[in-house]
Amino acid sequence: MEVSYNALRLHPKDNVAVALQYIGKGETVLISNFGEDLIATEEISYGHKISIQAIKENEEITKYGECMGKATEEIPLAAHVHVHNVRGLNENERADIIHHMMKT
User: Fold this and answer.
1) Given a cut of 80, is residue 98 above it in pLDDT?
2) Confidence band for 51, pLDDT divided at 50, 70 and 90
3) 90 pLDDT exceeds 90?
4) DSSP track, 24-92
5) In sequence order, which residues have a C-beta less than 8 Å from that of residue 30 and are 6 or more positions away?
6) Residue 16 φ then ψ, to 5°
7) Could you tell me the residue ranges of all domains in the chain?
8) What is the CA angle 75-77-94, rounded to 5?
């Protein structure tokens, strides 16, 4: 039986998945490249992110296997992850990531 996914985890290190279509609050989230289904705790717009684990305040948001920002508040499992609860990296944080990448 073919599964119709409505979200995609882009990299095994990611703590978010990307919505492949609008996902309503309470809707089952079938995530490609992830081992479990979730129930959305709020609406997720097409192309936006949904947390696939609880994310603590100031914890890295990882997409494509790379840090793309930090949580500005605690983000529960299966919640909308977007500009209302994520901030971009500051110059020192970006420099730290580049330095770490060059060492590996």
Assistant:
1) no
2) very high
3) no
4) -TT-EE-EETSSS-EE-SS-B-TT-EEESS-B-TTPEEEETTEEEEEESS-B-TT-EESTTTEEPPPHH
5) 3, 4, 5, 6, 7, 37
6) -135, 160
7) 7-103
8) 45
The pLDDT value recorded for residue 104 is 66
The pLDDT value recorded for residue 48 is 98
> CATH 2.30.130.110: does it fit domain 7-103?
yes
Place of tokens 């990299």: 11
Token pair belonging to 18: 């990307």
- CA-based nearest residue to 6, from 54, 56, 50: 50
Q: How far is CA 32 from the centre of its chain?
A: 13
> What are the tokens at 24?
């309503």
